[in-house]
Amino acid sequence: MTTLHFTRGEYRLQNGGVNIPLSTVIARLPVDEIRKVMQPVAAESAPEPVASLEDEWARVLRVLERRTSRSAFNTWLRPLTPVSVLPGCVLRVPDKTFIYWLSEYYTSAIERAIRQVMQQCPERVVFEVTQEEMLIQAS
């Protein structure tokens, strides 16, 4: 049986005790044969797509939406904007009232939803108001 390995910085074909650099084999193969050999390797070595912060947060919101009433979700959770999720969860909120309300009633639900979606729990959940919003509220 012939297998393909990546060792010493190059792909090598191994058949029994024979270990041949892939570049040597490719030089002697027709293009169709090269594609047959390389296609499974490319599929196996392709990196997992990395979800964006917005995509991950959208999944967290879907979990929270199923677990809360529609009015509570629309009032307190939908307006949140993620700044970061892991290792620490930082969520931007519209005003200081949200900080109190979310800290009192929704922090553990947010942590559970993040754990469910990402298989990790944030070190902590922090709510922040933008500097501009604080200035508007102060005036």
State the low-pLDDT regions, or none. none
Count helical runs.
7
| Oligomerization state | single chain
Beta-strand level of the residues, as a percent range?
15-25%
Q: Name the CATH homologous superfamily of the largest domain.
A: DnaA, N-terminal domain
Describe this structure in words.
This protein is of the alpha+beta class and 139 residues long. The protein folds into 2 domains: 2-45, no CATH class; 53-138, 2-Layer Sandwich (GMP Synthetase, Chain A, domain 3), CATH 3.30.300.180. It has 7 helices and 6 strands. Helix 3 packs across helix 6 (107-118). It is elongated.
Kindly list the characteristics that best describe this protein:
alpha+beta, 139 residues, 53% helix
Topology, please?
Elements: E1 2-7, E2 10-15, E3 18-21, H1 22-26, H2 31-45, H3 53-67, H4 70-77, E4 81-84, E5 89-93, H5 96-105, H6 107-118, E6 125-129, H7 131-138
Summed up:
The chain is an alpha+beta fold and 139 residues long. It is built from seven helices and six strands. The strands form two sheets. The chain has a three-stranded antiparallel beta sheet with strand order 1-2-3. Strands 4-5-6 form a three-stranded mixed beta sheet.
